[in-house]
Amino acid sequence: MGRDRSASAPHLELYYLLKPLRLGLSWDEFTGTIDMSNATTLAIARPSRLEGWKADLAASLLAALVMVGAQAATGFPALFDSGGDNDSMMRLAQIRDWLGGQSWFDLHQYRMGPDGGFVMHWSRIVDVPIAAIVLAVAALTGSMAAGEVVAEILWPALLSIAALFLIVRAARLLAGPHTMLPALVIGAITLNAMGLFTARALDHHNLQVVFALAMVKLLLAPGWRRAAGSGVCAALMLAIGMETAPYVVVAGACAAAALLFSRKDGPGDAIGFGLGFAGAAALALVATVPPSSWWIAQCDAYSARLAVVALLGGLGLAATATVTISKGMPARLAGLLILAITVGAAAILIAPQCLGDPFVGLDPRMRDFWLNSVAEAQPLWNIVALQPENVAQNYATPAIAVGILVTATLRHGVRRPEVMLLGFLVAATAVSVWQIRGTSFSLPFAIIPLAAMVAAARRDAQGRTAKATLKMVFAWLISLTLVWSAGSHAIANAIAPKQNAGATTAGKGKLSCTADATYALLAQQPPTTVLTISNLGAPMIATTPHRVLAGPYHRNNAGNIAVLDAFMGTPDQAHAVMRREKIGLLAFCPGNDETGSLVDWAPNGLMADIVKGDAPSWLEPISETLDQPLVLYRVH
Question: Which residues span the membrane (predicted)?
Fold first, then answer.
């Protein structure tokens, strides 16, 4: 007797598209119509290790292709307009420098800042796969430019496939195979809305998110191999950027908790995680950090000081598990307490400066005129006060996800997947309250329990009342950041309509000088050092042969201060700065927000004079740029 396909029409097309691939996923698993009558928690009977992984991978690939297709349908606008994504532009410049002959260990950006540049705090781990794509395509086409374009599309797409696959697999571990469709839909919409996985997203945050998702997924189920893989992901994520330290701490705590509470699997999990973490931490140090920088006291990049703490933690956890493998909980607890005290003391002795404000050494003027305006560094209370329409889209779904996991734990008791995922989600949400950049992790983590909630609502709605159907629709809606964003912005715009609400994205990019075409006339000028606002430093590095003085990076303290002195000082003071720094051109973008901020901060400064049309005589306007978004002046 044939199956009634009409009852599950929304899934029919995708299921029968995948069916010829023989992926091992039944119709009931795909649609979530399996019997849930015996379920007592979020989790149903756990699937075997390989059950459905091929289907999950194929579905993730399909979802990622839809995401890329949507971008292609609009002409990949990000390829022609960075939209203010300075880090991706700077990453491209760093990769070009490396492929152009700069040493693997030399992370100087020589074309930004005072003469000699400054050392970036980024890791080569991110550069390697992107450079590999560039070189492979260049070898086939004979064009490095073609290689870069392909890399700008392919690299984020590959990461989106990995992220979606890990989200789906984690959702399976949490609540069974019926979560696949909700995890894919919520995941694809959320990741696309975040902007970390769209074309030209070469920044390190997307790779960190993938490592974080892998770290979490591998810890949700017991097994020393999984735990070892989780430890490797934790170390690589940390080596890429120290902002992931809170999640590494949670991962270590999860492995320690497994040792403490699970006599059967705990020792293997702790040993696997500890050795994987320590081994990868040591390898990352040797492979990516020059020996001359090992012992430099720095908290924004990986170093031997931090590697020592990582080695103590990883090897110490493995040793504690080995020594107490046949002992009871009191002995394990004592061993873990000793380890925690040892690692904490080592961190205080070796890198005490890294336990406080990461920007403690920043010039006060840079803190006032730059850091306090950096979007990703804003705390929740600033967003509530200044951009209330952005609160819901960043904090609603993580809050709901926390509620889902807490409720499941209270109802059904402590279970490994729920409690561990809750730990990561609470940590990421706490970080996002301090700095909104934490939402790069809280939003993806939240997808996993949200998928479980929607899957349960879909199950309850099948053949049930209209009320159950409405609950399912409601579950879908509150799980999507896009819904929260659209709703809150609609309300905000109804209350106070924005004057530029009708401006197109391309128009905004042109006015704010983020579009690549903005720099065409500048690129035609003889190479020199350009004085411009920090927001335009990275795009100029990536699209022109010039040097720039400013860029939105805290290590470029001297260059950024010089630019503030020039634009906020009197014309005479500005001229002195320009002579000292050998400035040949001044680039002025009246439509960029930073320009307006400089005028507000210094109404009698050089920037204010230029905005008013009272540029000093030693600034010669380049006539063909006067009607352009970016106006150029020769400095005499």
Answer: 57-80, 128-146, 153-174, 180-199, 206-224, 244-261, 273-296, 302-321, 333-351, 395-412, 419-436, 442-461, 473-492
